[in-house]
């Protein structure tokens, strides 16, 4: 029996620039569709468009009434098909990365496993939800931006800049948040180390959400189709991370000391484009639709087209790196298809 092929694409990729105000959400999506169905779906969308329209990418389609109607019609035909997506609130992801590369490293050195239970996720939610409220929001924003600048490969900020920004922000905070920001101040050695390793090229793409989000999508898709060959739209970040997707099980699991990560069902990774694989065109549409809907949650601006997309999006979304305002009363929600728009969990 032939190995199934799954096609994937992403929407609103800004690499490690996670604080781009115009693109607050990242989405990775994957589809498993029959060749003939995929081709017919793309042709049906093209039939709604003027001959001068060009390639029917999501961004262009979503900007016209005709394109939006064509997308909805296409999604209606795909209701029973295997389509999955995973989203990242980029601003929240910055905070989760601060916890991961600073606090978790300090905790590990002291013998405390921050990934055992909900400690890491709880701390990230604490910083994200209370940071702009129990401290000066401008200083909080500058702390996040300095962190991003400091840990990107071509660093525009030093460790000294980062910890100066943390201290400046901490001076504006109110209890009980102050002591948790003081915890960040205690991670200078860890900050020096991670910035050195990034500058030397030992580590890359630390902030890029492409591989973490795609890994979750692949894991969830494997539950539906079993092992599969992955074909992704051209992407430098995914190309660099393709070995990770195939050999994740060679790495230790930080949440389970002594055990390895679970194997992803990806047998191979290749790259193509929508002219050769109509499934990649549909993956672009799915990623764009989920990203547009999720963006409306972040901006809280009414988006009539996002409202039309919601029934499809809620069926496809397999979770997300997403803040949970109810975390401290309900605890962590499992990764899974959300029942409500604000359900995605890290």
From TrEMBL:
Residues 336-346 have a biased composition (Basic and acidic residues). Residues 325-346 are annotated as: Disordered. This is DUF3800 domain-containing protein.
């Amino acid at each position: 029996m032939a190995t199934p092929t799954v096609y994937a694409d992403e929407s609103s990729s800004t690499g490690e620039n996670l604080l781009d105000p115009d693109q607050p959400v990242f989405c990775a999506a994957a589809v498993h569709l029959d060749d003939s169905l995929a081709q017919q779906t793309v042709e049906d969308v093209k039939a709604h468009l003027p001959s001068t329209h060009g390639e029917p990418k999501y961004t262009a389609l979503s900007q016209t009434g005709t394109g939006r109607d064509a997308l909805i019609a296409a999604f209606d035909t795909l209701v029973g098909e295997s389509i999955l997506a995973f989203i990242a609130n980029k601003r929240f992801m910055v905070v989760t990365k601060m916890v991961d590369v600073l606090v978790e490293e300090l905790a590990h050195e002291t013998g405390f496993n921050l990934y055992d239970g909900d400690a890491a996720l709880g701390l990230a939610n604490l910083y994200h939800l209370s940071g702009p409220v129990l401290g000066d929001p401008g200083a909080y924003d500058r702390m996040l931006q300095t962190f991003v600048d400091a840990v990107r490969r071509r660093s525009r900020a030093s460790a000294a800049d980062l910890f100066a920004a943390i201290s400046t922000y901490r001076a504006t905070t109110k209890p009980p948040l102050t002591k948790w920001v003081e915890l960040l101040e205690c991670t200078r050695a860890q900050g020096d180390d991670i910035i050195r390793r990034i500058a030397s090229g030992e580590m890359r793409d630390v902030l890029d959400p492409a591989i973490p989000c795609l890994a979750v999508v692949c894991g969830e898709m494997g539950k539906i189709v079993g092992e599969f060959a992955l074909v992704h739209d051209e992407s430098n970040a995914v190309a660099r991370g393709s070995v990770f997707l195939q050999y994740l099980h060679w790495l230790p699991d930080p949440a389970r000391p002594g055990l390895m990560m679970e194997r992803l069902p990806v047998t191979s990774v290749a790259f193509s484009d929508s002219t050769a694989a109509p499934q990649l065109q549909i993956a672009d549409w799915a990623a764009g639709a989920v990203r547009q809907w999720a963006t409306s949650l972040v901006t809280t601006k009414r988006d009539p087209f996002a409202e039309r997309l919601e029934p499809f999006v809620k069926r496809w979304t397999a979770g997300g790196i997403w803040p949970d305002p109810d975390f401290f009363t309900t605890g962590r929600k499992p990764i899974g298809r959300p029942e409500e728009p604000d359900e995605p969990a890290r």
